[in-house]
Amino acid sequence: MKLNQLLSLGLMTAGAAATILPLQRRVIWDNANRTFAIALDLDDTTEAAARAGVALDDLLHELWHAGATHLTVPEDTLARLMAQGRLAVAVPVVPLPEPPRVARWSYLASGEPGLLERIKVELDARQPALDTRLIDEGDRSLLAVSGDFVSLQQVGLGFDPELAHLADHAGLQPLPRPVSYPWPTAVTIERTLAQAVAITKSHSNTPAIVAFQGDGAPGHPGELILGHEMLMHETIGAMQRQGLTFAYFAESRHQRGDWFVAKSLAPHVVLAHEFTQPQLVPEDMYSAAHRWGLLARERGIRLAVLQLFKVVHATTPRDCVDYVAAVADVLVNREGLHLSGRPDFRPAHVHHSHDHGHTHSHDHDHDHGGWGVGSREWGAENHGVDEQHSLDHHHDDVSHHRDHGEQHHHHDHESHGEQEIELIGSQPPAPSPQAPHPSPSPQVPPSPVMTTHCRGLR
After folding, report:
1. Helices 319-328 and 56-66 sit at what angle, rounded to 10 degrees?
2. Is the separation of the CB atoms in 68 and 48 below 8 Å?
3. What is the rounded distance in angstroms from the CA atom of residue 434 to the CA atom of residue 247?
4. Residue 411 forms beta bridges with which residues?
5. How many whole angstroms from its chain centre is CA 447?
6. Residue 5 — very low, low, confident or very high, per pLDDT cuts 50/70/90?
7. DSSP alpha helices (H): ranges in 217-337?
């Protein structure tokens, strides 16, 4: 045998041997990480309920029956409350005579009981240099706030506890989404993250997951994590003290500082993904569901934050139920995953159709005792590789239709033994040899490599 042939054969043998360990790690990772969470975007779901003319609570129940597991809870701000019509700038009958310590007085009114009091408590804790006063004008109450009102509209004010109750009543786990704003302090960061833990721990014993809203700050393009960048260590320290798990959007919605946070908080990290509205335009509900399956299989995504189909490929607002059902069908029936907190849930098989009639019925009685989810160390080691995987799915291959007459969902919430449910993991290693070949033309860039020991949900 010639020398070059011997060298080639030796290199091929060494290369084949080198793949054994990554493949073994991939098999271990796949076996340990078999749970997926489907989170509903609160704003999209609220919009769908309003346009469909149904109560938000009823639509959330339908979506739970379709396979949803979480509901996002964005952090309140003055701007958000005003945009929702829950808060308004008002003119007092008699303005306060004394000048404020900072800037000028602004007056706020609300028809929602307790909202002004909650805002005052948060502003006093987060902006103690400002004056806030509740004014009783007989037939109404006003909140007087000093300072620059425009800048105050961006400051995070914690989470609405009513939304956590709403999610809990529908059988969904709250997913807090803190906002980013200019010049946070260690105190405001700690307060926001402590409140994030409170709305999750008070309604389930699931390890609290935080998915930063990260809308960015003026003058800073891109999305920011609360505390970026000079107070990132305070953010990480607060998350560690509160026992929070970081939702890392490794494939798409990169936030400034997210990789540093993920490295610092490992293993308390869950790989997440969110398709934006422009990304949904070339898709339909069923091709998007297949993309979620490919992301789960090839990229290790374990948390899907679902924005709903609106203008394109959605005839009625209640088509969102079909979308969630399609995603759950692909993840559970095709990919063999379990839904977070619902290990025995088996969705009906979904088939493609353009018939958008809906007949949904459900029992609103949820036994939350069975939703108990606790974390523990697995000891399964994750080793990521920087390898590109194909995520494209050809629309001509999609032929799925939802048969409403054959839906048989299992709704038992009781825990059964020590069923392992994992939501926390990092980028999986090389692709499993059993995984079928996806179509070419990758759409998603590879995520950074991350090595950690998984800690899962049960």
Report:
1. 30
2. no
3. 28
4. none
5. 18
6. confident
7. 232-242, 258-265, 277-280, 285-298, 319-328
Residue 29 parent element (H or E): helix 20-32
Cβ neighbours of residue 394 closer than 8 Å, sequence gap 6 or more: 439
**Of the ranges 63-77, 121-135, 194-208, which one carries the lowest mean pLDDT score?**
194-208
**46: exposed, middle or buried (C-beta count within 10 Å: 0-12, 13-18, 19+)?**
middle
Cα 442 to Cα 446: distance, rounded to the nearest angstrom: 10
d(CA 386, CA 442): 14
Question: Burial of 215 by CB count in 10 Å (0-12 exposed, 13-18 middle, 19+ buried)?
Answer: middle
**107-138 core/surface letters (b: 16 or more CB in 10 A; e: else):** bbbbeeeebbebbbebbeebbeebbbeebeee
- Residue 167 has what pLDDT? 95
Output the furthest CA–CA distance in the chain (Å, rounded): 101
Q: Which one-letter amino acid corresponds to residue 162?
A: E
Angle at 123 (CA atoms; ends 118, 125), nearest 5 degrees: 100
**Residue 231 in tokens:** 């107070």
Q: Find, among 206, 222, 214, 210, the residue nearest to 269 by Cα.
A: 210
Do 219 and 244 contact (CB within 8 A), yes or no? no
pLDDT at residue 338 greater than cutoff 90: yes
pTM: 0.76
Place of tokens 């029936």: 333
Give CA torsion, residues 397, 401, 407, 412, to 10 deg.
Answer: 40
